[in-house]
Amino acid sequence: PSKRPTDDDIPFNLVRLADPESGSLHPLASLKTILRSIDRKTHHVELVSDRPDPIVRIVNKKEAREKYKELRKRAQAAARAQVRKEIQVTWGVAPGDLAHKLEKVRHELVGGKKVDLIFASKRGQVVPTKQEMDVRLNGVLETLADVGKEYLPRAVRNAMTVSYLKPL
């Protein structure tokens, strides 16, 4: 809902009404007259500006409420999209465990979240060659291609590779 003064909270007696169709301003009129001319169950008068003359507009309460809900829904969706999940996997992960981790990645991407997929080596584990790492990661990304794609270049440090994924 708007933080602007409405109806009887407007501190002016004479106001100019903004025409909803043309956007033009009507001449100065009594606020009380304008309030009497509307159905206050379905509409309210809202102060838009107070300089140079106080300007008001008539707002449909139902439409304003729906617009507010839609804006809130969009803001929440945008906030969710900014959330990034981090999922770590070792290079020597068993196929069953990898399938489980990839299902988690898929779930997050379908939910609209970005995912940082990290492949790293365990201490004492044989470190794969750069070529083996690329083949493994490309295979994983192919399985996720229907729900996400890389949006940043991969970060590669020693035996660790980070793939930054975003939903399609």
TrEMBL record:
SUPFAM superfamilies: Translation initiation factor IF3, C-terminal domain. The keyword Protein biosynthesis applies. Gene3D superfamilies: Translation initiation factor 3 (IF-3), C-terminal domain. The keyword Protein transport does not apply. GO terms for biological process: mitochondrial translational initiation; ribosome disassembly. GO terms for cellular component: mitochondrion. It comes from the Eukaryota. Keywords: Initiation factor, Protein biosynthesis. InterPro entries: T_IF-3_C_sf (IPR036788), Translation_initiation_fac_3 (IPR001288). GO terms for molecular function: ribosome binding; translation initiation factor activity. PANTHER family: TRANSLATION INITIATION FACTOR IF-3 (PTHR10938), TRANSLATION INITIATION FACTOR IF-3, MITOCHONDRIAL (PTHR10938:SF0). Belongs to the IF-3 family. This is Translation initiation factor IF-3. It comes from Thelephora terrestris. The lineage of its organism: Eukaryota, Fungi, Dikarya, Basidiomycota, Agaricomycotina.
